[in-house]
Amino acid sequence: MFDIGFAELLIIGVVALLVLGPDKLPTAIRTLGLWVGKFRRTVSGIQAEISEELRLDEMRRNAAIEKERLDRELAEMQTPFKPEQQSTDAASAGATQAEPASSAGHSDAGGNDSHRNKADS
Question: Which UniProt keywords apply (predicted)?
């Protein structure tokens, strides 16, 4: 973060000792240490929150992309079956209309008309 070497820290320590004196220097260092610790914890918490938000945003984007892909696959899978289903419905409708026409002649299992056999007897 800061490029402070040992020499700079030593100069800051000597100046602080001269300004504050030997009585107040330990209290000032302790207070400064508490502030630095609090600052680091705050920055660390903010970094964790930002990282979590970025992770959640990425997951949302990935989920949206995957949903679009699955929707396209579903549409592709349903598309070929729609024309076949319509032709199957039309064929079954035609078969149900043809059945009453064949039963109108009153044929028996042998294919002979039953009313004709009664007339012959």
Answer: Cell membrane, Membrane, Protein transport, Translocation, Transmembrane, Transmembrane helix, Transport
pTM: 0.47
Number of domains in the chain: 1
Q: Is 11 a member of any domain?
A: no
Closest CA to 86 of 77, 75, 94, 98: 94
Which ranges in the chain belong to alpha helices (H)?
6-78, 81-103, 114-120
| Block mean pLDDT (10 aa), the chain, length 121 | 80 90 91 95 97 97 97 87 60 58 50 52 48
88 lies in a domain?
A: no
Q: Among 118, 95, 116, which Cα is nearest to 105's?
A: 116
